[in-house]
Amino acid sequence: MPEPVPHAIFKTRFFLLAFLLPVFAFLSIGLLERVSNLAPRVTFHTLGGQKLALKALETKPLIVTFWASDCPACIKEVPDLIDLYKQYHPQGLEIIAVTMYYDPPNRIINLVKELQVPYPVALDLNAEIARAFGDIQLIPSTFLIAPDGSVALKKIGTFEPADMKARIETLLKG
């Protein structure tokens, strides 16, 4: 029959386990957050027939916005995105709009022409890009990606233009 473990040793082992387990869990969550804070490695297929790899755009700030032609908030946000593009694209900002998989391409093409969207618009016909960015379901959803590939901002719903400008300017300064 095994000898009983003295009560003091058991308490010490239990205390160490109870203390260290949450510490290790906290540290591992922190590591996961840092890893998951990186933008996914995707390639966008634009209406113009271009293939744009996100990795190739990482030397500059980048906005990736998910939208649909039947989303009033998305359409309302387009002029703000156009203004950001016109103001900051000469300094390096890139913007890519990603359509939702259910949005008919012909409707997107007509809307992009009507709104005179100057930045690339990508089709996501199989929802691969939406899944890569965390299974986007709610739109508009906007990601500001820093030049190092990290996600500097994830905004579900419309963004505040003044806040976005401040964030872009910070990223452009380095």
How would you explain this protein's 3D organization?
The structure is a single chain. The protein is an alpha/beta fold and 174 residues long. It has two domains: 1-36; 43-173, Glutaredoxin (3-Layer(aba) Sandwich). Helices cover 44% and strands 19% of the residues. It has helices spanning 7-36, 72-88, 105-115, 128-132, 161-173; strands spanning 43-46, 51-53, 62-67, 94-99, 121-123, 141-145, 151-156. Strands 2-1-5-4-3-6-7 form a seven-stranded mixed beta sheet, with helices on one face. Helix 2 links the parallel strand 3 (62-67) and strand 4. Residues 14-35 have low confidence and may be disordered.
Summarize it.
The chain is α/β, with parallel strands linked by helices and 174 residues long.
Features:
2 domains; 7 strands; seven-stranded mixed sheet; Glutaredoxin; alpha/beta
Between the first and last Cα atoms, what is the distance in angstroms?
68 Å
- Beta-strand percent range: 15-25%
Tally the beta strands.
7
> Strand order across the biggest sheet?
2-1-5-4-3-6-7
Please give the oligomerization state of what you see: single chain
Low-pLDDT regions: 14-35
Order of helices and strands: HEEEHEHEHEEH
Produce the secondary structure layout.
Elements: H1 7-36, E1 43-46, E2 51-53, E3 62-67, H2 72-88, E4 94-99, H3 105-115, E5 121-123, H4 128-132, E6 141-145, E7 151-156, H5 161-173
Parallel strand pairs: 3-4, 4-5
Antiparallel strand pairs: 1-2, 1-5, 3-6, 6-7
